[in-house]
Amino acid sequence: MELRGLEKIELSSFSKHVRSIVSSIDNVLSRREEIRDTLIKNGRDIIRLSGWAINAIHRGLLEDAKKHIDQMDEIVKEFVSLASTDSFLRESGFVYNVLSEYVEAKAFYSLLVEGYLPRPEELGVSEVPYLQGLGDTLGELRRLALDLMRIGHLSIAEKILDIMETMYYELRALEYPDALMPGVRHKVDVARRLIDDTKSLLLAIKARMGGSTS
């Protein structure tokens, strides 16, 4: 075996060459760490505001929910802009998780208050966190439907179920591997069970009431 390339390597210059390569990578990773630290801080704020907004909606405090969402909108703009400066971070599970929380709150609020489901480009997010967020929105809609059934507003709960089923069937039609839309298929499968359970409960309540709704 002739390893002629080894004869060309002069260790002193080779050391400088390796040092240059590693130093360049070190600069990239150092900057990435700074970006990541900022994203983590902003991400915590987004997740917290999303939770506050959703809880406010469930409590009927829509003005409070709007304030939380407006705050979240501003932070998300900075979050997305910063994440976009590094392709590694932009496609990370952490970024997807934060943005899916944002989508969940925005979609939930928009559906209930505006009767409208915003598109991903309107929210400034990519397809995967958007789909993940819609999957989580189905869970919040189910929670609201249960609350409405508990106080006897069955017709509104039924409308929510219809909305859930519409969203579910459209999401289920996406036949792609988990590598292309991580976590989405699981959320859709969970949504099917939630819808079936909620529908069974609604039918049982209506049967007890003799089929009347309010």
CATH topology descriptor of the largest domain = Methane Monooxygenase Hydroxylase, Chain G, domain 1
Shape: elongated
Secondary-structure element order, N to C: HHHHHHHHH
Measured by DSSP, the beta-strand proportion falls in: under 5%
Number of strands: 0
Second-tier CATH architecture of the largest domain: Up-down Bundle
What would the average pLDDT be, to the nearest integer? 93
- The helix fraction, in percent, is over 70%
Unreliable spans: none
H/I helix tally: 9
Overall tally of domains? 2
The structural class is mainly alpha
Spatial extent as radius of gyration = 24 Å
Q: How far is it from the N-terminal to the C-terminal residue, by CA?
A: 87 Å
CATH class of the largest domain: Mainly Alpha
Main sheet? Answer: none
